Amino acid sequence: MSNRSRVATTAAATLIAAAVPLAPAVLVPAGAQSAACATTAFVAAAGESAVTTIDAQTRATSWPGNDIALPVGSLPNGVAITPDGTTAFVVLTGTDQVATVDVATRAMTGTIDVGNAPQDIAITPDGSTALVTNRNGSDPIPDPGKTGSVTTIDVATRTASPTDIGGLERPAGIAVTADGTTAYVASFGGGHVSTIDLATRTVDPDDIPVGDSPFDVERSPDGTQMWVANLDSGSVSTIDVATRTVDPTAIGTAGGPSGIAFTPCPTPTPSSTTTSTTAPVPAVTPAFTG
């Protein structure tokens, strides 16, 4: 469970649920998230404690020899890039940290201590806060005590809150609603998705049941649903964001789905202003008799 592939994209027409094993994790800067318009992809390479960068247009890679070095044994995992495209946040599962990488200089600029066995990361749409899931143990050992947590990081100051948001069971993937109010967390050990009110930093006690071993969660491009990859069910569950209810019929996939991404929709072509040549329809005066 230490490695998986996550690729964020723009508005979507097609969902892709990837089957395990998947490695490494990949993300491109927000606002440039499809290969057609992206500049650089950042790849978390757990086997070499590094981040490989790939030019999305030329497919040129920094590997070998020019990767971004991370602490030895850090097992980089999830990756998120700030909406302004300046900084990459990389989860370091092996050292219980998150590394920050300057996108322009391709250099690690620091590390931030988080919880035990961090897995995934998401950044709120306004770019103010990074959210890191901490498994706090080995999978798939059940955790009925829900000792997992989410660490929140102030993106501007690069500091973690001294108090994590607890009450989660082996949290894995995480996604934030389009309005930035709620985080959805896939609880790998519990077969459900938990929701967190980000204003009050509280976990809703009513978990949303999905399939077995939910691993990844992604917001649909229109923001109305959360899609959940259920690793051991071979399925994808969909959750209505407005009602927080799951569709009773899951979508079957190939075995071991572990990641979800959406393909981009075509960019709308601006309509040109034209002058109508259609002749006006003359008004009809009704005739009355009698």
Structure description:
With 290 residues, the protein is an all-beta fold. Helix content is 0%, strand content 44%. Strands 10, 11, 12, 13 and 14 form a five-stranded antiparallel β-sheet that branches. β21 and β22 (235-240) form a beta hairpin. The protein is globular.
Task: Walk me through the topology.
Elements: E1 12-19, E2 25-27, E3 40-45, E4 50-55, E5 68-69, E6 76-81, E7 87-92, E8 97-102, E9 107-113, E10 118-123, E11 129-134, E12 148-154, E13 159-160, E14 165-168, E15 171-176, E16 182-187, E17 192-197, E18 202-203, E19 208-209, E20 214-219, E21 225-230, E22 235-240, E23 245-246, E24 251-252, E25 257-264
Antiparallel strand pairs: 1-25, 2-3, 3-4, 4-5, 6-7, 7-8, 8-9, 10-11, 11-12, 12-13, 12-14, 15-16, 16-17, 17-18, 17-19, 20-21, 21-22, 22-23, 22-24
Summary keywords:
single chain, 290 residues, mainly beta, five-stranded antiparallel β-sheet, 0% helix, globular, disordered N terminus, disordered C terminus
Brief account:
The protein is an all-beta fold and 290 residues long. The protein has strands spanning 12-19, 25-27, 40-45, 50-55, 68-69, 76-81, 87-92, 97-102, 107-113, 118-123, 129-134, 148-154, 159-160, 165-168, 171-176, 182-187, 192-197, 202-203, 208-209, 214-219, 225-230, 235-240, 245-246, 251-252, 257-264.
